[in-house]
TrEMBL record:
The lineage of its organism: Eukaryota, Viridiplantae, Streptophyta, Embryophyta, Tracheophyta. InterPro entries: Armadillo. Coiled coil: none annotated. This is ARM repeat superfamily protein. PROSITE patterns: ARM_REPEAT (PS50176). It comes from the Eukaryota. ARM repeats lie at residues 78-122, 121-163, 639-681. Keywords: Repeat.
Length: 708
């Protein structure tokens, strides 16, 4: 009765009956799935104008997708695309939305299908669904986003789509009935916060990562029952009652009602008192981490789970943990406080207290525990961060009389200023920079480049780049064997183990190691670009050796976004050695093939901005039109065909024209025909021709080349 040859009412009754039948469980779903074509016919009914029919069709898909063995079949049948179109409708009932998004929720359990769901069309619709009044729709959308966040390859698109502010808002909303959605939002944000850059975005939305230390750890908390509340800065509140409450009730009530408008206290202090009072009360009655009490008793202290709390509660909880007797818990709380508080302003205060000098002296020592070396280097790398605004860190006067602030480190403005055009008095202790420029300290950093883990190599390279900013002559670095350190980082062992058992048997661990190596290589390549400004360094370095190493890295499997500084270093090396700037130069050709083209394809795939997509395809078309050898092969091998076909349907007029030109060049190679057809080019080209769009002659030429 679902068949297209049946009456509309028959089909509607059939889909409703089948949906109800499928609610019986796997046995009934298996019976439905014995009939081939049922998924395709069900998908067809998602386009029905009848709300009950749409709901039943989506409900049946939800039931079928709850069975593991059918998920891939549903996705391959085009369910994700059909649901995307359905959710794009302006007027859709909450029931239909719920069933549709719950189908995506089931499909997102499969990691292979997350890439199909995390696309530019569907992500904004899922995020928008978080604003729905219907709780079930919110929960379904939150569940999909929670699952997507489990795969790191989705993080960039999710963040670019604006998921962090939306999830943070849900987590900070104190409304009954949102318990499930809050849990989903918290889990998704915690996954995103595993990336240090996205963690900053989460913190900026008013959330603090707080360690889960187990309910048992809070039993050591001993509140002062008879102490009268005071402000965070130590100022005492006037005590009006004759005596303290026996169990601290009056103190608790005062703390919870400190926001009385008659009190002349600023908002920050009010929140600090309320947060502290609430957390101490919860600890006193044993209500913190109650839901995890059984689990925490069975787990070891090595558990490193986190939760996210709003600033008021999060900071108060961290301060409370510092008062416990569990050293491991105190250490983790201190790390969370560092993550939440180390910003430009805090760094200035720390510098002013003269902390750089002892940290430098600590790192100079050769015989220190590795943990102490790592912590000292971490703090110093944050303080001496070349990427931060240099004016706010060092200078209190304008550059050359201009009121315009400096850019970030490495920008043309900063580079010009640090080469002698800066005016103004350094705010930091001059003796600290003397210690940083000490050759013994720099030699220690270079030793870390040669012998430490990629994580420490990255931080050491970052500090050395900072040295190039405060000593533009580079004399302090050139005086030490910097080349040996660069050489060690550029020859990461993990890049040579592509065929090892670790790469095949432990792919996740291998991918993490490659990512860490990529970060270290990127930071060191950035350092190299600064060193190449020194004529003395260029004269002494083995440029051919480093060119060879960087070319190998460019072709390696480190993440694409870590190759930008590698490419920049190669181009600079080539130009300084007198190479041509066009594609005849083999280095420029390799940079284009292995960095520029993949980056532009990634921009077409992942960017939510139509302008950015247009810019990427226009640049790709320019590269091909200039006749770069193997450029079309690079586009095809890096997955460029599918986004190009998508652009001829959804892009601007200029993007459509450029995409058609590229696809035409790709079609000259018969090996690309199957991929172009599989991407859906034929129906897209026919639509352009039939609608008489300006590009219809180009579309017709391409259609004639492709096999019928």
């Amino acid at each position: 009765m679902l068949g297209l040859d049946h009456d509309r009412l028959d089909r509607e009754q059939a889909i409703v009956a089948l949906w109800k039948y499928s609610l019986g469980g796997k046995k009934y779903i298996d019976a439905i799935m014995q009939f081939h074509g049922c998924i395709t016919l069900t998908l067809n009914l998602l386009q029905s104008e009848s709300r009950s029919t749409c709901e039943a069709a989506a409900g049946l898909l939800r039931s079928i997708s709850s069975i593991n063995s059918y998920r891939e079949l549903i996705a391959d049948s085009g369910a994700i695309e059909e649901i995307t179109g359905l959710l794009s409708r302006p007027s859709l009932t909450p029931d239909v939305k719920e069933q549709s998004i719950c189908t995506l929720w089931n499909l997102s359990v499969d990691e292979k299908l997350r890439e199909k769901i995390a696309n530019n069309d569907l992500l904004p619709l899922l995020i928008k669904s978080l604003d729905e009044e219907d709780v079930k729709v919110k929960e379904a959308a939150g569940g999909v986003l929670e699952n997507l966040a489990l795969s790191r390859f989705t993080h960039n698109m999710m963040v670019e789509a604006g998921v962090i502010p939306k999830l943070a808002k849900i987590l900070k909303t104190d409304v009954e009935g949102f318990k499930v959605t809050k849990k989903e939002a918290r889990n998704a944000l915690l996954e995103l916060a595993k990336d240090e850059y996205y963690r900053i975005l989460v913190i900026e939305e008013g959330l603090v990562p707080v360690p889960m230390i187990g309910a048992a750890a809070y039993q050591s908390f001993r509140p002062d029952l008879h102490s009268w509340p005071s402000l965070p800065d130590g100022i005492e509140i006037e005590q009006t009652s004759k005596g303290p409450s026996r169990f601290g009730a009056s103190e608790l009530l005062l703390g919870l009602n400190i926001d009385d408008k008659s009190l002349n206290i600023d908002e920050a202090k009010m929140k600090a008192i309320v947060g502290r009072t609430q957390q101490q009360f919860l600890a006193r009655i044993g209500a913190i981490e109650m839901e995890n009490r059984k689990k925490s008793q069975s787990e070891s202290s090595a558990d490193h789970r986190l939760t996210l709390l709003p600033w008021m509660d999060g900071v108060a909880r961290l301060v409370l943990i510092l008062k416990l007797e569990d050293e491991a818990a105190i250490s983790r709380a201190a790390e969370s406080i560092a993550d939440a508080s180390i910003n430009n302003g805090v760094c200035q205060i720390i510098e002013a207290e003269g902390v750089v000098d002892p940290l430098v002296n600590t790192l100079k020592q050769s015989q220190i525990p590795e943990s102490l070396m790592e912590k000292s280097l971490n703090i110093l790398a944050r303080i001496l961060d070349p990427s931060k605004e240099m004016k706010s860190k060092f200078y209190n006067a304008p550059v050359n009389g201009s009121k315009k602030g400096l850019g970030s480190a490495g920008s043309p403005e900063v580079s010009a200023g640090l080469n002698g055009n800066m005016v103004g008095k350094p705010l930091s202790n001059a003796n600290s920079w003397k210690d940083v420029l000490d050759t013994a300290f720099i030699a220690r950093l270079i030793m870390m480049l040669k012998t430490s883990s990629p994580s420490l190599q990255r931080k050491a390279a970052s500090i050395l780049e900072f040295v190039t900013l405060i000593d533009p002559s580079l004399g302090s670095i050139i005086a030490v064997d910097i080349e040996s350190g660069l050489d060690a980082v550029f020859q990461q062992k993990v890049l040579k183990d592509t065929d090892s058992e670790a790469a095949s048997q432990q792919p996740e661990k291998y991918a993490l190691e490659v990512e860490e190596a990529g970060l270290a290589i990127s930071a060191t390549s950035r350092l190299l670009t600064k060193l190449l400004d020194s004529q003395q360094f260029r004269q002494n370095m083995n440029s051919s050796h480093f060119t060879k190493l960087l070319r190998e890295i460019l072709k390696s499997n480190i993440p694409l976004h870590r190759k930008d500084w590698v490419a920049a270093s190669l181009v600079k090396l080539s130009s300084l050695s007198g190479g041509n700037s066009d594609f005849e130069n083999p280095i420029n050709m390799e940079v284009t093939l292995y960095e520029t083209i993949p980056r532009l394809i990634e921009q077409m795939k992942s960017s939510l901005s139509l302008e950015a997509q247009e810019a990427a395809v226009m640049e790709l078309n320019r590269i091909i039109s200039e006749g770069l050898v193997d450029s079309t092969r690079a586009i095809a091998s890096k997955g460029g065909i599918f986004p190009l076909v998508k652009l001829i349907e959804e892009g601007s007029e200029r993007a459509v024209e450029a995409s058609l030109a590229i696809l035409y060049n790709l079609s000259m190679d018969i090996e690309n025909h199957s991929a172009i057809i599989a991407a859906g080019a034929v129906p897209a080209l026919r639509r352009i021709i039939l609608s008489q769009r300006p590009q219809w002659p180009q579309a017709l030429h391409l259609l004639r080349i492709l096999p019928n």
